[in-house]
Amino acid sequence: MDTEKPSRHGHMGQADSLSGGFSGMITVGEGRTEVTLQVGTQGMDCFLRVTGGMAHVGAVATASEDLVQLSVVGNHKEGPLAELCAGNWTRLTGNVCVAMVGIHQDQATPAEIDAIVDNVGAGLQRLMDQWRQWGSPARGGDADLETLMIRWCHEAAGIARHYHRQTGDLAFKYANEAVTEADRQIETLLRGRIGEAFPDDLIVGEEFGGPDKGTDQQGRCIWQIDPIDGTLNYALGLPDYCTSLAVMSGHNVLGACIHQPATGDTFSAMAGQGARLNGEPIRVGAQRDLKDSIISLHLKKDGLIMGDPQLLHTLLGAPMKVRRCGAVALEMAWVAAGFYDLLLASFPDRIHLWDIAAGLLLIQEAGGVAVDFRNRPYRLESPAMMVGSAKVAGQLVPLL
After folding, report:
1. Using one digit for the tens of pLDDT, what is the confidence trace for 270-308?
2. Residues with Cβ within 8 Å of residue 214, at least 6 apart in sequence
3. Helices marked H in the chain
4. Helix-helix angle 141-163:181-197, to 10 degrees
5. Model confidence pLDDT, tens digit, residues 32-65
6. Same fold flag, 143-281 and 290-399
7. d(C-alpha 216, C-alpha 13), whole Å
8. Which of 62, 134, 143, 198 is most buried, by the most CB atoms less than 10 A from its CB?
9. Taking Cα atoms as reference points, which of 130, 158, 123 lies closest to residue 21?
């Protein structure tokens, strides 16, 4: 059987092969009622192909993750069902697919039609069982999860761009943190997308918190959402803001995406698979000495650094240049890409995971370090953090 490569519009021409996180093939029945079913993924698209009999007219099979239903139908000469009749790959929409299989009704007895229906039903059910064991179609393996996160962050960017420089009067929540309608709408959007794709996962977001106290977290992934990091910049009409999205299992970050709507830059990473900027690999900067480095400072008023004027003065004079953007997730992404050599953050109590989870994975996968002010591995949510060049971090430690 030839294997063809799918397009986003259903029909596939002759090409190399169907690729993706999952593929499966089952042959059911025998003789004129033998039917072969193939399921596969490419990128974020899922495809189905059915061949067997004369592959012309027969049964429609509707398959979801939880249910397979079949019914006998008439002749289809065009459209997606006709493509399936011709043995072509056909893209599934969401979690529901429609498959056309079988033999021409004029050449089939009722018993043969029933056998086709039974065969396809059994085959699709077995394929869907394999699919569930391998993983959710939406999760689709590491590459597809990264694609999905990028897609969601790009969707969120549409909301951010819509409200940019139209946020009205400044509004603040706790600790003088700015908030806008765009923050709330983006978090609502992302929560909805995650809930649809991964209903068993838990979500923590800057605007709506979570999960509820007493929720069983054992063995469940937790998503960290910062809908707009750098909200004050955003509310002031400045371009230095981003959406930060990460998924974690325990203390490990599995996937990350940070997107800056103003530039279109997308920083993404999957654990063990490197970090990327707009799809191209990135690494932390060259291992310069502290005196030749460019570092970013993210300092809160009641943190260790701001509470010690002499320490602040020393820190400002140690590198070649100092920058302060006011969006810690975005700056961590810049460090991962080598734009800065290091970011130093000093908070009064803790650094929320929605601020830094995505950035931590980007730094790790780009070859950088995440340490505290004693050069020990950074402990999640602790208030003192340095990320980026191991050499610069090591030279800063004696000054802190």
Report:
1. 998 999 999 999 999 888 899 999 999 988 877 778 878
2. none
3. 80-85, 110-134, 141-163, 181-197, 231-235, 309-317, 328-336, 353-365, 390-396
4. 160
5. 556 565 655 544 445 555 555 444 333 444 444 4
6. no
7. 48
8. 198
9. 130
Q: Tell me: cis bond preceding 281? Omega within 30 of 0 counts.
A: no
pTM value > 0.70: no
Q: From the centroid of its chain, how far is CA 360? A: 15
The total number of residues shown for the chain amounts to 400
What residues of the chain score a pLDDT lower than 50? 1-22, 42-45, 53-87, 91-105, 131-141, 143
* Token pair for 321: 């240049």
Neighbours of 58 (CB within 10 A): 31
Per-residue tokens: 147 = 């694609």
Cα–Cα distance for residue pair 33/113, rounded to 1 Å: 8
Q: What is the mean pLDDT of the chain?
A: 75
Supply φ then ψ for residue 30, to 5 degrees.
Answer: -155, 160
Measured between alpha carbons, how far is 303 from 217 in angstroms, rounded to an integer?
A: 31
Closest CA to 99 of 52, 138, 32: 52
Coil, helix or strand at residue 277: strand
Q: Under CATH, to which class is 290-399 assigned? A: alpha beta
Asked if residues 189 and 155 have their Cβ atoms less than 8 Å apart, the reply is yes
Q: What is the largest CA-CA distance in the chain?
A: 91
- State both tokens at 107: 């050449």
Q: Specify the pLDDT at position 122.
A: 63
Cβ-based neighbour number of residue 273 at 10 Å: 14
Long-range contacts of 234-240 (CB under 8 A, 24+ apart): 234/160, 234/164, 234/167, 234/178, 234/180, 234/182, 235/167, 235/170, 235/171, 235/178, 235/180, 237/164, 237/165, 239/263, 240/325, 240/326, 240/327, 240/330
User: CA 64, CA 373: separation in Å to the nearest integer?
Assistant: 51
pLDDT computed for residue 217 by the predictor: 77
CA distance 85 to 93: 18
**What does the block give as tokens for 199?**
């209903």
Q: How far apart are CA 254 and CA 224, in angstroms?
A: 11
Pick the CATH number of 143-281 from 3.30.540.10, 3.30.230.10, 1.10.10.10, 3.30.420.40: 3.30.540.10
Helix and strand totals (H; E) in the chain = 9, 19
